[in-house]
Amino acid sequence: MNLIDVKNLLFKYKMYSGEKEEVIEHTAIDNISLSIKKGDFVGILGHGSGKSTLAKQLAALLKPSGGIIYVGGMDTAKEEQILDIRKTAGLVFQNPDNQLIGNIVEEDVAFGPENMGIPAEEIEMRITKALASTGMTAYREASPGALSGGQKQKIAISGVLAMEPECIIFDEPTAMIDPESRKELLEAIYDLKRLKNITVIYITHFLQEVSQADYLYVMSHGKITLKGTPETLFKIPEKLVENNLELPFEVALIDDLRKKSVDVPEEIYTKQQLLEFLKYHFQKDKSDNIVLSEYKSERKTISESSKSNVKSQAKENSRYGNSMEKQSDSHSISVYDRNEKLADNSLDNLNLADETEVSKKSHELKETSDIKENASKNIDEPKEPESTKGITLKNISYQYKKQDSGEEKYAIKDISLAIEPGEFVAIIGRTGSGKSTLIQHFNGLFQPKSGDYFFNGENIWEKKYDLKKLRQKVALCFQYPEYQLFEENVLKDIAFGPKNLGFDKKECEEKARHAMQLAGLSNELEKVSPFSLSGE
Question: Which pLDDT belongs to residue 224?
Fold first, then answer.
């Protein structure tokens, strides 16, 4: 039995060009048809393809320009049926700020069930269960406004989970969540189907996230270009790549092995199947396994090279100061912990029974241990940066005030680091670890509660320092693009920065057009409102 039927759906946006208020019609969904069975897990994939627009159509937030959508037998175009449709199909938005309204987390999660008339005792149980599913129980009495982007997203998901609709539509729910939390959340979403028979429509551009789905639809330019089970689509990797999708690791590896003339059977497409196949081949005589032997030899060479590079990098990391060695502080970074976890994961993921492979794996783990030890030794001996150029933080701390209690909580604590001109530096951490707070110190949006920030040798928080000068050199791209879009059309928005740096109109437009080209934005979008575009 189908819960959702879409027939010849057409949807056109009206986009306004700005100055002359010219109306431009853009076809976001172009004559698509699909059906989703009750209790199925369906993935919808694509890049800037109209999938988020389709999600809003399925939740009756937008009306079709043509065609028809039935949700639980109800027509989404009929005003009198919209409320019942929204009780049937809940939507988790791409941007959690679009659906957070409560003063504290539990109020926000309770909002949906309260409006459905659920008894108070059951609402209490639903809140507890929903927050546990997303790992947010500890934040039950926190203010949503004080949470990180990833944490807000988890609260938004909790709010929909608490409503227990027949169908939940997830619009890229893991976009701002760290890998470990992503794994936990995906398990919770798959459990909705497995344990409660809830229909799940999962919108993403990551094939790995929907590898266990019942059915997949791939969209491009508002049309469905591919459809089928994961088993069917993973066997045609070239078609997935044509649709700008990144292949899951095991699918890419299988494809590469076949290209290297390894006879991998057609029915193999999952990680477990691949492991069983490789196990069988590792047990064969060396004469029958020349290609895989060469592969193992290449891998060893790469491992030796990586060891050398990491040891060299460990010495370089010594100038990042003592904030990296504080394992007790959740806001600090530890190379020791990272390598320890790599070693653990290597053992957990080893499913091959071949003794030679196990022996080689043990040798690699010893190398990892050596790297860990050397990196730790170097970190224990912090050095002053050799140059005063670039960004230097010394013992920076920042605290937020909790809105409910007025209590101050550290977002970042005692961080010291140095970033020299021309470096590519990654700041990595779990959701809520302080990453966004830290980078907003870099261009002076946040002033630390303690510690010093030097840019090119100057303390930016001295009275005589001009912060405008800093922001001309240190640009910041926010997590949510809406926070820094405000002009009436795309070209003006991109030209805003150069304009404020004193460039004339012609130079501003030249720079803006060049930036559009680099970002893959077509010239047709120059006069379009930035708020009419997709999140991608």
Answer: 95
Q: How many CB atoms lie within 10 A of CB 429?
A: 16
For residue range 314-334, list pLDDT tens digits in order. Answer: 444 444 443 333 333 433 333
- Distance of CA 122 to CAs 164, 172, 215, Å? 12, 29, 33
Q: Please tell me the predicted confidence (pLDDT) of residue 526.
A: 86
The DSSP output letter for 247 is P
Distance CA 452, CA 386 (A): 18
CB 331, CB 412: distance < 8 Å: yes
**Token output for 286:** 């060396």
Report CA torsion sign: 466, 472, 478, 480. Answer: positive
Per-residue pLDDT of 451-478, as tens digits, reads 999 999 999 998 888 888 888 889 888 8
Is the model's pLDDT at 180 over the cut of 50?
yes
pTM beyond 0.90: the answer is: no
Q: What angle do CA 516, 218, 216 make, to 5 degrees?
A: 145
Closest CA to 254 of 273, 233, 281: 273
Residues in the chain: 536
Q: How many CA atoms lie within 13 A of 213 on its CB side?
A: 30
Beta carbons of 432 and 147 less than 8 angstroms apart: yes
- The dihedrals phi and psi of 483, each to the nearest 5 degrees, come to -70, -15
Q: What is the strand order of the sheet 74-75 is part of?
A: 23-37, 2-16, 66-71, 74-75
Q: What does the pLDDT read at residue 5?
A: 96
Q: Model confidence over 475-531: pLDDT tens digits?
A: 888 877 777 888 888 999 999 988 888 899 999 999 999 999 998 888 888 888 887
Query: Of 98, 106, 66, which Cα lies nearest the Cα of 171?
Result: 98
Name the pairing type of β-strands 199-204 and 167-171.
parallel
